[in-house]
Amino acid sequence: MSFGPPPVGFGATPPPAWTPPSEIERALFEAKLREDWAAYFGTLAQSRLFFEIRKDKADATPSATYAVFGYDPRVAGGRIWAVYTEGMLPAPEPHRVFDWNYLEWFAKAWEPTDPPMVVINPGSPCEAFLPSAPPHSAAWARYGEQAPAQEQSPRLRTLRIGGPLHGRVAHGLACGALLSVNNDFFWNGMASHGSGYPRERKQLREWWGIANRAEWLSALNGLLAAESHSTVWDFALGLRRTIARDFGGHVDVGYWKQAVATVIRANSEASVVVTEDGVTKTEPRPAPEVEARIEGVQRLIGRITRYEARMRADGVLGENQYVSSVDAWDLGRASNMARWGLGARFGTLKEAESAVIQAGRAAALAYRSWQDFSAGFVLGRSLHFDEEEFGSWYQDMVEVHRLLMSDPGSPWLNIPFR
Predict the structure, then answer these.
(1) Is the pTM of this model over 0.70?
(2) Cα end-to-end span (Å), the chain
C-alpha cells in the first residue's frame, strides 16, 4: 500500500540518530524506515492521537469538538490537520489545549471544509501525510476499525525524551505510578496533557467536584497534607504503631481492639483543660455514642487485618508485616492530582512539579521503601472503595504493584525511595 511521494506518504527520510520519545514513536519510526504501512497504521490504530482544539469553545460546550487546523507549505494550499502521538505533544501552555481520539475517528469526522491532509507528528522523523478526504481516507481508516481491542492488562510506559527519569521530580512521579500505570499513562509524563483537556476537566468535576483553580488547589493541598482520608483510619493505625513501638513488634488483634476501647472511653470522659486563654471544660460523651464509636473502630480493625492478610498472600506485604499508615493513598493521588490540574489548565507546569516533589518528600518521611508505600496506598484505596469485595479496586492495584516491583524499567527499581 502506498500514497506516493511526499507530501503524500511518509515524507523525507528521517535521520538515523533520532531518539524516539517513547515506544509509540519508535514503532512508527522503524515502520517508516522499512516503508511498512501495515505496521505504521497498526501502531497508530492502538494509540491515542491528539489534536489541538479551541479552549474557549471547549469551555463553553465541552461535549463538542472544535479542532484548530495548522499550516504546512509542503501541502497544496497549506492547510493541514496536525495530529500527535503522546510522546510528541508540545509542553502544556495556558491557552493551547488538546483532545484525542482513535485513528478511524479522523476519517469519520472529516468535513469538506476541513484540510485535505492529516499530518501525523508534523516535522518529526516519524511524520506521515494522510489524505483526509474520501476515498483515500477509507484506506487508512480501516486499520483503526479493524484494530484489536485495547489491552486490559497494565503496562509500564516511560518517556525516554521529555520526562524525568531520575531526581526529585521523577521520585515524586514514581509515587503516583500505581495510578498512572493503571490508567495507561506514562509514569513520568510530567508535562502532562493526560486524557486531553475536555476529559481532564470532566473527570475532575465528576470525581472530585473540582471546577476551577481554587478548588483544584484546595484538593491538592489536602492530599499533600495527607488529610483527605478518614481520621478514623489514622486513629486505628496510629494506635497500633504506638503499641508495636512500646512492646517491640507484633500486635495481637484482640489487644489492639481492647486498646481502642480503653482510649476512646478515656477520651470521652469529662475533662478540664487549662490554657493561656483560660479554662475549658468538656462534658462527657453519652455512653451509647461512645460504645457505638468503639464498635465502629473495632469493625474497621477487622477490615484492616483481613486486607493485610490478603495483601500478604498476594505479595504486596511481606510475611509478618503490616501497614503503618495510609498516607500513601493521599500522596500517590497528590502526585497525580498535580498532573490532572496541569492537564485541565488549573495550574502551571512549575506548580505541578513543585507539588510532585512535595509528595515525594512526604512519602520518604512516612515510609521506608517502595513496597511499604505501595501497601499503604493499596490499603487506603481498598478501604475507600472496595467494601471487602476484593474486586477491581483491589485487584488492579495488586497487578500494578507486581509490575512496578518486577519490571526492569520500573522507577521503583531504578530510583531510591529515600
Answers:
(1) yes
(2) 53
